[in-house]
Each structure stands twice: as structure tokens, then as C-alpha cells.
Design goal:
Helix content: over 70%
Mean pLDDT: 86
Strand content: under 5%
Largest sheet: none
Shape: flat
CATH topology of the domain at 9-65: Arc Repressor Mutant, subunit A
CATH architecture of the domain at 9-65: Orthogonal Bundle
Structural class: mainly alpha
Number of strands: 0
Number of helices: 12
CATH class of the domain at 9-65: Mainly Alpha
Length: 245
Amino acid sequence: MTDAKTKAAATSAVRGRRSASFLNPGLVLDAAMVIIERDGPDALTFRRLGIELKADHTAVLRHFGSKDDLLIALADRLMEEALASFVPSENWRETLLSLARRIRSAALAHPGVAVLVAARPPRQAEVLRAADAAIGALRQAGLSARDAAMYYLVLADASMAAAAYEAAIVSLDSGAREGDQRAWRRQYLTASPQKYPHLASAAQHLADVNDQDEFETLIGLLLDAVELRAQTHTGNAGETERGGT
């Protein structure tokens, strides 16, 4: 019996050594994404990663020392997918629209991951390239460096927040999601014209709006604000120049 236990322990140790040799950060992240999308964000633990990879969880810890490190790497992975093949447009508005839409597409492709890492800033160099393109687009629109910095952060956060919110809805059980949608539509459409005249007059339109419409409208409003701010900046610059002559 003792020999059998010793043999089993030795086999386990060998399996652990093999795990350490074949694992790499990419495989760990692949497994993490599978666990999150299949079983939900709360299911992601190092022990579950070990089971998914058929390895001892301590082998995973050699690549990611903490769950925080793992989450940041997942945020990087999500943004890497969002920015794959991204090329800035000659039109500043199209550049910013493209970035926002890419963030949304990546979030909806991996809704569980998006919900989990929405508040974690990615740290890879590819994100810096996108930030440079976005700020360049805002400067092209006519914003000052200070305003470009502010509007870049607002646009980036708004895009990710809206995408993560939509991803959270997508992550719901299909029955719960459809039930919520039916309930909202029913509430809108059955609103009393006497009590809520304005709501009743727009009820059909509210029921027809979809998530993509909302996202496009949100980003469009922010880009309209960029144009207005740029016009103000240009006007103020002109007034200053005239006042100085």
C-alpha cells in the first residue's frame, strides 16, 4: 500500500514537472477565457485553471503570480483582439468610430471576460498605439492637447463601459434576458397616455431601439461634442489673435 502511494505521488510529481514545461502564458489565458465564457466570471480560480489545463495549479502560478496579474493579462488579450489590424483613417471621426466599434465587438465576442476586466486598464504597447491614434484624431478635429487628452479618456471609458454593460446583458441566461426585454417592452407599450403622455407617445420607438443603436448614438453624441468643443477652441483662438493685434 505504501509503495502504491509512493508511486502515485511520484507520478503526480512527474505530471507536475511536465505541466511546468509545456505551459506558457498564452495557453493559460486561452484556458482562462474558456472557463469564464463557459462557467461564468466567478468560476475563474487557479485551481480551476489547473483542472482545465490538466496541470497542477502551482504550475500556473509560475506564469501569473496573482489573480490580479491574470486579470490584467486578460484585459490585454481583449484589447489585442479589439485592435488587431486596426489602421487609423484619414478622417478623424472614422478613426474614433472604428476604435469604439472594435472595443464593442471584442467585448461581445467574449462577454464574460469583458465584464470581468472592464475596470482593469490594459498595459500592452498596442494600446499605446491606439491611444496615440485617438489623440491624433482629436487634435486633427481641432482640439487642444489638454482637451484631446480629456476627450480621449472620456471616449475610451464610455466605449468600454457601454460595451461591458451590453456584455453583461449578453452573459445573462437566455431566458432571463428575453424575459427582461419583454417586460421592458410591455411596460413601455402599456404606459397610460393619461399618466405618462410623453412616454406613451414615444413608447413604440423605445421598444424598437436595439443595443447597437444605443451604442452608435452614444459615441455619435460624444463625437458631436468633440466638434462643438473644437469650434469653441478655434473661435477662442481667433478672438485672442484679434485681441492681440
